[in-house]
Amino acid sequence: MAPFELSVFINCPFDEEFAPLLQAMAFCVTDLGYYPRLAPENADNAANRLDRIVELVRGSKYAIHDLSRCKSASGNEYARMNMPFELGIDHGCRRFGEGQLETKAILILEETRFDYHKALSDIAGWDIRAHGGDHIKIVRHVRDWLVHHAGAPSIGASKILSDYDVFQAWYVERELACGASKDDIREYPTVQMVQSMREWVNAGRPIYDL
User: Fold this and answer.
1) CA 40 to CA 190: how far, in whole Å?
2) Strand, helix or coil at 82?
3) Where do the structural domains in the chain lie, given as residue ranges?
4) Which of 25, 128, 176, 192 keeps 20 to 30 A from 83, CA to CA?
């Protein structure tokens, strides 16, 4: 199990459109020596989803909450409330918890600057970072935050993005060698890719030899 001091709970959309942003975010966390914790990592159907979320929140010193999908995009579409709800759980855990829970730190992301003002004005004054749907900006925000708040190694964002390219080449070739097609790989759940990020780091960050 990942230690509390190195665990980063990631609360964000898990849909296909957001997947490239989530994957880049998770890689940045992993490359800097931390453990991204995602709700789908616990596939135990006997466990209530909310209980799993609470367990991850309590077990993670750091958390990243992306509020990009808190508004509807078309008529008759409901806004998605899971992300702000989980942010509330995390904030409450830090505010009212004891011991190590009092040391928790939170990063909040949004797609468009000041969008949260329209839906969640209670957090006005917090340092919210906008990424514009750009995975490069997400990596920069997450890197800066972990270096500042977690004492992560001061590795440049460009180096992390370069590492990400190396990992992706290694990951695809490994899966192809195991009999998967490129279409198969694209359909793999993000949590499987995140597990492979840790395997790549533990293996010494190998480079695929063309």
Assistant:
1) 9
2) helix
3) 4-153
4) 192
